[in-house]
Design a protein that fits this description.
alpha+beta; Immunoglobulin-like; five-stranded antiparallel β-sheet; 10 strands; 24% helix; globular
Length: 160
């Protein structure tokens, strides 16, 4: 496990302990259940799949955050995916966009309930769970919206 990931886990543990000390175990359990609900309502379960040359996954867009985004960044196991190797495609669109094609003049618009597919090229696929973080730079407030999930990579689907 990379050292920077370990530091983040320790910091999260410290924050959890501080939360329990200040508000009690019941409040911390409720907060964890809200976080779990959000993860299940945003990340399409088991959509992390191997594809030729990389991986793909999908996020569902419940009406939590909508609007225009001027940048998309993705991290795979804590490492930034180069923008020219991260692709995004909104539901109903035939063409995917490279994340470096998303800008203040070419926004990525998200609407409630509209699925968004990601494809990452050159991503190292090893056994076990991988942590994926998607950051969306918003043109509104708050300026940065992010989502993180962990899942194991499923093998590529076979053609019928």
């Amino acid at each position: 496990m990379p050292l920077h990931r370990f530091r983040g886990d320790v910091e999260l543990l410290r924050e959890g302990i501080a939360l329990i000390e200040e508000f009690g175990l019941s409040a911390a359990e409720r907060l964890a259940s809200v976080a779990e609900f959000l993860e299940h309502s945003v990340y399409e379960a088991h959509s992390l799949r191997e594809v030729p040359g990389g991986v793909t996954f999908a996020l569902l867009n419940p009406p939590l955050r909508v609007g225009g985004f001027s940048a998309v960044r993705v991290r795979w196991d804590g490492v930034a995916v180069p923008p020219d190797r991260a692709f995004v495609r909104r539901e109903g669109e035939a063409v995917e966009r490279r994340s470096d094609e998303v800008s203040a003049t070419h926004l990525l618009d998200l609407a409630p309930g509209r699925r968004i597919d990601f494809r990452l090229e050159g991503t190292p696929v090893a056994p076990g769970h991988h942590r994926v973080r998607v950051e969306l730079q918003n043109v509104a407030i708050p300026p940065l919206v992010w989502f993180e999930f962990a899942d194991a990579v499923a093998p590529a689907r076979r053609a019928p």
